[in-house]
Description:
heterodimer, A: 113 residues, mainly beta, six-stranded mixed sheet, 11 strands, 0% helix, B: mainly beta, four-stranded antiparallel sheet
Amino acid sequence: EDQVTQSPEALRLQEGESSSLNCSYTVSGLRGLFWYRQDPGKGPEFLFTLYSAGEEKEKERLKATLTKKESFLHITAPKPEDSATYLCAVQPLDGAGSYQLTFGKGTKLSVIP
Amino acid sequence: EAQVTQNPRYLITVTGKKLTVTCSQNMNHEYMSWYRQDPGLGLRQIYYSMNVEVTDKGDVPEGYKVSRKEKRNFPLILESPSPNQTSLYFCASSVSQQPYNEQFFGPGTRLTVL
């Protein structure tokens, strides 16, 4: 069974204080790992897809990296508007669940001015 | 504007009263999906559809039905709702037949079953 574990559950940062969110996964074969951002009361918003170990992608203050067992979302010099819940999801390469995403429970990030 | 719409946004109902939550996308996407989100459990997939007339179960399909008669619409049907189906529901769509492209999520439907 595919599993996605995100840590920490919640993270409070001062504005400008860089940090990383972790997503550990167990999947028989990985088609893709995804990062989404979710603001309160809204649907998730796509950030990145990573396909293979060693891959990195960046968007503004966010950088996502991937290894064979985990992914990190690095946040550099965060601003209050980066406050949100960040969700990680995986899609297996094949098998019964290969058309599905399995999501982690998310990390709630709060950036204090 | 490219978007996924859901209706209703909020619904309070009683046990056993059949209801339908509609989902529509205007992006000509192949893949559509329904999720529920519960505190402490995260997003869990209910059903998905890879194209018209092609649907399959996700991780938590019990108590739900779906249909995909048109490409743009993917309604979620609760034949006999129960209190454990109280949740926040999201519909999503993706351009290909698989979700590994960007999924666009709707704004959510908050359902309360008394």
